[in-house]
Design brief:
about 260 residues; mainly alpha; three-stranded antiparallel beta sheet
Length: about 260
Amino acid sequence: MAVPAPVRGRAGAATPAPARTPHVTYALIAVGTLVLLAGPSFGLNPGYGTGDARVCAEQRFEQRWGAVPAELLGHAPPDAGRLAALPPVVKGCTPAPDPGKIPVLSVLTSLFVHAGWLHLVGNVLFLYVFGPGVEQRLGRARFLLFYLGIGYLATYGYALAEVGSEESVRALVGASGAISGVLGGYLRLYPRARVTTLVPVLLFLPLRFPAWLVLGLWFALQWWPVGSAVPGVAYLVHVIGFSAGWLAVWAAGLWQGRRAS
């Protein structure tokens, strides 16, 4: 868990206390939370049943609203044959083809679908901590475009990397790619801001480190498993999103500097 605290850097810049409420950050968190509460993952909606029925409904929900790499590159949902190759989470549960699904829009919906409350809380925590500072610098409209654009880029990048693999027909859900972009943008904007971090190996002792160290270590931990078979975690999405976020903020600053000159 990490909570940033303002601190002066050599250039005199600090992580700003937002001059205005970060409405976009809070709205993104709210939409993701509402989707989880209304969907089958949280178990509040009785329409999805209980037990195995709910687990099956969750798989189908993610396949319907998540981004499936094969769909994105083929511009059409997989047929029944490809879906039947997916291992069912419960016996007799097979996702059904959905010819009405629009693959390019599924990237947008996938950013607000999460595989359970732990998945959501992990993403929401990072967005809540690092989102306001980036939104403050970019402005609300540009921050929203930045967030969604990085989410699309990371998802399509992952789809290209998984061509022909078993993962190409599995639904990708969650805002990890977009939020990783926020982390990359934050690192570019506030590399010397102090981040209070709870260190598990030291019994969760809170320590303060510069953002470049905390986020740099986080990036290294995402890069390390790329290419290995880690079920349920698309580390490549995190790497692409983080890198794209850093580069986008760097390019925006370079462009603004040239305009000012």
